[in-house]
Specification:
The chain is an alpha/beta fold. It has helices at about 10-20, 25-30, 75-80, 95, 105-120, 165, 170-180, 190-205, 225-245, 250-260, 260-270, 275-280, 285-305, 365-385, 405-415, 435-440; strands at about 35-40, 40-45, 50, 55-60, 85-90, 125-130, 210-215, 315, 345, 390, 420, 445, 450-455, 460-470, 475-480, 485-490, 500, 510-515, 520-530. Strand 10, helix 15 and strand 11 (about 420) form a beta-alpha-beta unit.
């Protein structure tokens, strides 16, 4: 812990002291969290401070590259300087278990190395068992031996994710997974999956860098999605009839969704909260049935397997694929073997607008995104879990055109106090305008007590936060700032002691605020210089 600075120290003296001292890597990391846990609906560190997990997805879906993003030590230091304090690191079943019951030591050792590099930079890791279209046969995820597609046809569409709705092979593979059909060795697919997670948890249970496990990426219901598609078309058809007086046939409705240009017209109609809710809320009964009868039992099976060897890591539970679009989720907190609720569970939703992965990504609807994020907040409140938005964005190489969409998303993330992991890092992401100027921002990394609100006003170049300190917790509050030299004015209520710790290489650093004795409300306001 840092020694409290005397309240009589002036800003100029603090700056003089900082400039006269060599800033070592060890000293920089000293005041940061050493571990992450959960207290009711908040992430907390080993000192009980309220933590905002500010992250990014580190991804390789390339089988040729061994499903490893090998960024090296400097990569993770770069992420730290961008304000990243956690990553969602994807791992792939295909390489983890290349044949039934046989685990790939070489792959695990490569994962070990990445975790060590992240930890050395002060970055926590959530391991994500990733899949897209279920399997390596169609994209990434399960090995071929675990892909029981029954020889069904694989059909693709204009967007990669269209195959979820079009491919009988993908749907059948999911169906057989949810039914725990036997693999070639006679053991159920879910049993293999749970055993794999247990093997991983046993390996990392004592690793302080690995804070938890994201049990499955975007769980998809399988062939029941066909009924979901029909339900959506019918709901939109009724909305279209009410708005225009024209009743479209099922064939015409299908054409609207199949044609990318016509689909944009549909999305324009669905750009208001009321219209969007009217159509997508019709999926709730089907979505709830899948989550209750299939997804929740799988989560419970895997959680029991993990808890048999690891009782301290966080389990990150995602909602179903359709809940990414704001359909209300019915997932529940998993229980311990004794029947009590597991206290170390976080809600790890994804939130994507309907234009994601299309040419119109910059046209994301503010109202739709607000609807999706509000639904996520309500589910997190129902579950009384901390929320970590495990995927959002997917703006990729688009730069200035997506700035408004990025601003809207970040403002909602801050409003709801979400943790988040942007999807995803790619070469040069940090230099793109939307990432450099919007996503890389000032935020409270660790708050002594409970963080109540924080906000970046991008237009007026200000940052503000308020928090409630606890009387007996005398820990420092840590605020990350990407451009220390741009600070023009800083005001603080209560104890005026603070100092600034600069990170090596660049202009980023932390505002470190000394605690106030007693249970008090506090505020911080920072004004930044106008860019020339």
């Amino acid at each position: 812990m840092l020694t409290n600075l005397q309240s009589t120290l002036s800003w100029s003296l603090c700056l003089l002291l900082l400039l006269s001292c060599q800033n070592t890597e060890e000293y920089t990391i000293e005041f940061l969290p050493k571990g992450i846990g959960i207290e009711e609906d908040r992430f907390v560190d080993d000192q009980g401070r309220h933590i905002i997990l500010n992250g990014i997805n580190v991804v390789s879906k390339s089988k040729a590259d061994g499903y490893i993003f090998d960024g090296g030590t400097n990569f993770y230091k770069k992420l730290r300087n961008l304000g990243i304090n956690c990553i969602r690191f994807i791992i792939i079943w295909d390489r983890l278990e290349p044949s039934p019951g046989q685990y790939n030591k070489a792959y695990l050792q490569e994962i070990d190395a990445c975790i060590e590099q992240a930890g050395n930079a002060g970055i926590f890791v959530v391991l994500d068992m990733h899949q897209d279209l279920f399997s390596v046969k169609y994209s990434d995820g399960a090995p071929e031996w675990a892909t029981l597609d029954e020889g069904k046809q694989h059909t693709t569409g204009a967007i990669w994710s269209d195959a979820y709705m079009l491919s009988e092979a993908v749907q059948t593979s999911f169906d057989n997974f949810w039914e725990n059909r036997p693999a070639p060795d006679g053991i159920g697919l879910q049993d293999h999956y749970a055993a794999l997670w247990q093997h991983i948890a046993k390996r990392y249970k004592d690793n302080p860098t690995v804070i938890g496990y994201d049990l499955m990426n975007e769980p998809f219901p399988g062939s029941s999605a066909l009924q979901s598609t029909l339900t959506l078309l019918q709901a939109y058809g009724q909305l279209h009839a009410d708005l225009t007086g024209v009743q479209l046939t099922e064939e015409k409705l299908g054409e609207l969704w199949a044609n990318e240009e016509k689909r944009m017209g549909v999305l324009e109609v669905l750009s208001t909260k009321d219209n969007y809710d009217r159509v997508f809320s019709t999926l709730y009964p089907l979505n709830s049935l899948f989550e209750t009868e299939h997804l929740q039992p799988m989560y419970q099976k895997v959680s029991h397997a993990i808890r048999a060897v690891d009782q301290q890591s966080i389990l990150f539970l995602e909602h179903s694929y359709f809940s990414n679009t704001g359909v209300e989720s019915s997932i529940r907190r998993v229980t311990l073997p004794n029947g009590n609720e597991d206290p170390l569970v976080a809600y790890a939703p994804h939130g994507y607008d309907l234009v994601t992965d299309t040419k119109a990504v910059a046209a994301a609807s503010d109202e739709r995104v607000a609807y999706i994020y509000n639904q996520i907040k309500e589910t997190g409140s129902r579950l009384n879990m901390p929320i970590w938005l495990g995927e959002w964005g997917a703006f990729y190489g688009n730069s200035e055109s997506v700035v408004p969409a990025a601003k809207n998303a970040i403002s909602l993330i801050e409003e709801h106090l979400f943790g988040q992991a942007y999807w995803s890092y790619g070469k040069g992401t940090e230099d793109l305008v939307y990432y450099k100027n919007i996503i890389t921002r000032t935020y409270p990394s660790a708050t002594n007590g409970e963080l109540l609100v924080y906000r970046n006003d991008m237009e007026n170049r200000t940052f503000s936060m308020s928090w409630q300190e606890q009387g007996d917790d005398l820990q420092h509050t840590i605020v990350y700032c990407p451009r220390i030299s741009a600070i023009d004015a800083l005001t603080l209520t209560g104890n005026q002691s603070y100092h600034i710790e600069e990170l090596p290489e660049g202009d980023a650093g932390y505002v470190i605020i000394a605690p106030e004795e007693g249970s008090v409300s506090r505020e911080l306001n920072i004004a930044f210089k106008t860019s020339k």
